[in-house]
Amino acid sequence: KAVVMSGIRSTGFLHLGNYFGAIRNYVRMQEEYECYFMVADLHTLTTHPDTKELKSNVHRVLAENIACGLDPEKVALYCQSHVYETAELYLILNMLAYKGELEKTTTFKDKARLHPDNINAGLLTYPVLMAADILLHRASLVPVGKDQEQHLEMTRNFGNRFNHRYGEVFPEAFAFNFGEELVKVPSLDGAGKMSKSENQYATLYLSDEDDLIRKKVMKAKTDAGPTEPNTPMPDYIENIFLLMKLVSAPDVVEKFTSDYNNAAIRYGDMKKQLAEDMVNFIRPIREKTESIRNDEQYLRRIMEMGAEKARKSAAATMEKVREAIGLKYY
Ligand code: TYM
Predict the structure, then answer these.
(1) Where do we find the motif 'KMSKS' region here (predicted)?
(2) Which burial class, exposed, middle or buried, applies to 107 when counting CB atoms under 10 A from its CB (0-12, 13-18, 19+)?
(3) What are the beta bridge partners of residue 39?
(4) Is the dihedral of CA 128, 130, 132, 135 positive or negative?
């Protein structure tokens, strides 16, 4: 069985991008593969040193994963900080990661710009910790969104360097979306991708109430009326279609597409339809999350069970790593 690994930071509420970029595929993969999914709580500390909300955010991310259909009996669902072997592998991989390549990482440059007063070494070596998460289980498939592609390339580089220097331990890991292009869910304001920290009104959270979802969708940028028949779509209109393809029925998408091509589209109607389909998509996830996220005993059981499975796999890898390096003196 191929090994699957992925993670989500506990920096706040999960959104539609996290769902369609990552969690949807976790759920699709859980039956067939050996899966390790975790809450990247240590990664969170690179940008969120204040831990007042950490516990409730970790609980929420776990609950949201389960509410989306992840079955903690079928996969290892755990917290990064509970698997201590991660820290050991991270330390070792740091000796195989070069300062220059770390400084060139897009996410590092973005985050350094966003937090100029806290450009810490953890932020610089963020991709090394992520590589440790993946290599720890010798995973080969990593379901993630488009924004994580560069990190996967770095993971392969670190793993290959280890293999060349010390002997074959790690397989190559690839970002995975069932052979399709990796997903990038756009934000509602037509600028960039949906994210946790950017414009809150342009992001649809899995926790948003019905009316808030409607309000956000209705505010999304569109044109005043139809353009000439068969003109190319501007990005922000394409984004609305993209979101519609994710949550609406195929015949609905088809209708609005042909309206667009015939210059007969009414964007108000399109957004109303999208808003209702979005409400129907998000509501059950939100309600299920609410019923789980305060059940501390249940979540504790999940975390303990997940950590036990993950540490077993981690321990086996670390044996091989120590042996390959020569960290065995008797
Ligand atoms: P994070 O917490 O930023 O995001 C979690 C997952 O959601 C995906 N995602 C998106 N996909 C499509 N469109 C969007 N707008 C969008 N926004 C977010 C991300 O691609 C990701 O799959 N570094 C990782 C966490 C991590 C990790 C790992 C992932 C730590 N260790 C090991 C995989 C394997 C991150 O910051 O994800």
Answers:
(1) 193-197
(2) middle
(3) 8, 79
(4) negative
Interface confidence, given as ipTM, is 0.99
pTM score, two decimals?
0.96
- pLDDT the model gives residue 227: 77
Amino acid at 121: A
For residues 220 and 314, membership in a common domain is answered with no
DSSP-assigned letter for residue 148 = G
Q: Which domain holds residue 234?
A: 200-290
Q: If DSSP codes are grouped into helix, strand and coil, which group holds residue 58?
A: helix
Q: 157 and 303, same structural domain? A: yes
Which of 184, 196, 221, 320 is an active site residue? Answer: 196
Q: Is the Cα dihedral 271, 276, 277, 281 positive or negative?
A: positive
**Do 113 and 230 belong together in one domain?**
no
Q: Of 52, 109, 184, 193, which is the active-site residue?
A: 193
Q: Where are the beta strands (DSSP E) in 193-256?
A: none
d(CA 125, CA 107): 11
193 flagged as catalytic: yes
Chain segment 16-66, per-residue pLDDT in tens: 999 999 999 999 999 999 999 999 999 999 999 999 999 999 999 999 999
What element of type H or E holds 40?
strand 34-40
Candidates 155, 166, 161; CA nearest to 126 is 155
> Could you tell me which residues come within 8 angstroms of residue 217 by beta carbon, excluding any fewer than 6 positions away?
188, 204, 271, 274, 275, 278
- pLDDT greater than 80 at residue 212: yes
Same-domain check for residues 78 and 146: yes
E-strand spans in 67-215? Answer: 76-79, 141-142, 174-175
> Is 253's C-beta closer than 6 angstroms to any atom of ligand 1?
no
